Amino acid sequence: MSGNREFYFRRLHSLLGVIPVGIFLIQHLVVNQFAARGADAFNKAAGFMDSLPFRYALEIFIIFLPLIYHAVYGVYIAFTAKNNAGHYSYFRNWMFVLQRVTGILTLIFVSWHVWQTRIAAQMGAEVNFDMMANILSSPVMLGFYIVGVLSVIFHFSNGLWSFAVTWGITVTPRSQRISTYVTLIIFLALSYVGLKAIFAFV
User: Fold this and answer.
1) In this structure, which of 24, 30, 99, 166 has its CB flanked by the most CB atoms within 10 Å?
2) Per the annotation, does 28 bind a ligand?
3) Where is pLDDT greater, at 191 or 81?
4) Where does heme bind (predicted)?
């Protein structure tokens, strides 16, 4: 019985990491990309997202609750999984380890980012171009955001590979090899978008 529970918990964890959390990540990166067009373009894009109807309900049920489940269960997996990359230096074993490491880094970064933006907004701060430019004016915070964004993107991209295996989409070695290349391309493309947005605020 506990084995069945574990199976469904892991499947739900995998699903929520892609839908809706992964979709929100891509949407967030796209909005941030407007910073490359200037402060006005970014402020308009951010303002549009803030003006969505039922925004708080969407944030709670589509973003925060799935994210909390994915994060909490992900920490459980990270600290109970048996990493064997130290014994077997295979590429996929190292991806397994990096998935766990970037999961923890992602949790730290996202928690801090939410504190600096969404929580600050609830206390009266305005989430706009100037806010992010001020945050990233610190070299320490700039480095933190670069590492954090790359960790989030890697965790999502490599997680897509695991998602495809978990849900029976890629079952053969060939399909899994193709999936590795596809997820690598996704990582590189989203990293370009994410880093371009960060440096647009600097």
Assistant:
1) 99
2) yes
3) 191
4) 28, 70, 113, 155
The reply, when asked if residue 87 is annotated as ligand binding, is no
Q: In whole angstroms, what is the distance from residue 1 CA to residue 58 CA?
A: 34
pLDDT reading at 3 higher than 80: no
Whole-Å CA distances, 150 to 86, 87, 113, 171: 24, 27, 14, 28
Q: Which helix (H) or strand (E) holds 158?
A: helix 139-166
CA dihedral 100, 183, 33, 196 (to 10 degrees): 80
Inter-residue contact 156 to 25 (CB < 8 Å) = yes
**Sign of the four-CA dihedral 133, 101, 153, 71:** negative
Domains of the chain from N-terminus onward: 1-200 (1.20.1300.10)
Burial of 16 (0-12, 13-18, 19+ CB in 10 A): buried
Torsion angle (degrees, nearest 10) of CA 117, 122, 128, 134 = -50
The angle formed by the CA atoms of residues 44, 16 and 9, to the nearest 5 degrees, is 160
Query: pLDDT tens digits for 40-95?
Result: 999 999 999 888 888 889 899 999 999 999 999 999 988 887 665 555 558 888 89
| Structural tokens at position 12 | 């739900």
Alpha-carbon distance of 64 to 90, in angstroms, equals 35
Match 């600050």 to its residue by tokens.
Answer: 120
